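WARN no homologs supplied; continuing
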Amino acid sequence: MVAGADWWRGAVLYQVYPRSFADSNGDGVGDLPGITARLDHIARLGVDAVWICPFYASPGRDFGYDIADHLAVDPQFGTLADFDELLRQAHARGLKVLLDLVGGHTSDQHPWFQRSRARRDAPEADWYVWADPSPDGTPPNNWLSVFGGAAWSWEPRRRQYYLHHFLSSQPALNLANPAALEAVLAVGEFWLRRGVDGFRLDAIDFLAHDPALRGNPARPPADGQVPAKLFGLQEHRHDMMDASIMPILRRIRALTDRYPGTTTLGEVSSQDGAFARVRRYSAGEDHLHMAYTLRPLRGGFDHATVRDLLRESAGEGEEGWPCWSFSNHDVERAVSRWNPDRPAAPDPRFARLLAALLLSLRGSVCLYQGEELGLTEAELTLEQLRDPFGLSYWPEFRGRDGSRTPMPWRAAAPQAGFTTGQPWLPVPAGHHALAVDRQEAEEGSLLQVWRRLLRLRRAHPALVRGSLRPLDLPRPLAGLVRDYAGQRILALFNLSGEAASTVLPMPGGARMLPEAAGLGGRIQGDTALLAPFGVVLAELETSDRTVPRRAARLIRA
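OK structure emitted
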């Protein structure tokens, strides 16, 4: 495990979506005692921390991201005492615990909003974003909700519109109001006092907007076709990403600085300039510790994409600390989204390549539950969907439920051991074969590969804190060198389903790392040989400080 006050730098965080992790009482919904009972699985992986998605009191219209009480555990997940026990057990295993801090909006059932909507002279009157209608009664501007339609809803009691970036039941907080910001910080302090080790900050690009409420410019579609998601038809200059976010981030950082050893992880949207915002939001000693962006999770997987990832991961001479994830609860699972053979069953070699690539990047890492098992995206019917986003956009967009199906624990058990009842989402038939107990017993399983690669990362400081130099390699190869305190690690990736080889791009000797056995790569003399989707992980001779060759010679196998 990474030690010290800056343990987060290069750490690996395991993301738990509570509803789908483990159900302890048979009601079909995962809960806090279920997480506690499965902490050994997380600890055995060799990660540094657990990030737990919202379990706060909520109507559940957006499955926990519409919070009605930030200081209470929703009864379906357990009690505060259950959380305290989870925290104690995690710390006993050397695991840090991060919680979601959702500071951009609340549920419309939250007492803050109930009082704010009631009258304009309430103490919380300006805690949310209110605006008068246009002269013709329409919303004050053209801002759009991510979930579709106008970002404004009419409140007849105040004779005003309120802003919501997502569901209409998720009114946007006005963090430009000092009292509202103080209330959010007080929420953070409540959990820090209970002993949590930091926060993942939800959707931080939406924490600040243009105070003048100027309309967004249009962004006509390149192909001339109106998309299903109208949000893409605007340049989001004014409804989000306003410069006034920086003082807000400083206040959040100042809060965690009062609790040494705690950290902050910001979620940055996939809007243009995402990587630059990751660096800006995490630069210096008074902003967030680290940030990640959904941008690489939205597109395809090809040579150009990987080269861009490596370039952004390098961050030479730039401030800020990135965090990387390939899958999470909001996007299609990477092993399905990026697999070149889709819709055929994903190639297990491709899943191993993704694991090695993710753990080789410079920065911290988020590993989403089930990613260590190679879980594929679930193909659900309309009748099985629960996600309001998917229900609104079916069939053009099937929503987020496909990545939120329950964890399979025991292959032969009903519901794969997730619950003794009826699960809130179905367990896909194909996921039983990927269950934890089966992969525990299978030498060379993806679960075993993840454990080996995480041991390798912990054993080599270059992979945790080292600089990163992308290598200039021809298609279909990509590569990098991580360098720290005299230790240099070479990583090469064959991004294709055909075997390839290349002259080593670094002069001098290279020794294959034993933890990389079984990844389809080897070194023979000055040549790296890579099977389809193969990976080479090797330690370079430290006496040779020569820069990489400009381009390696590719040899087709």
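The two ends are 40 Å apart (CA to CA).
OK
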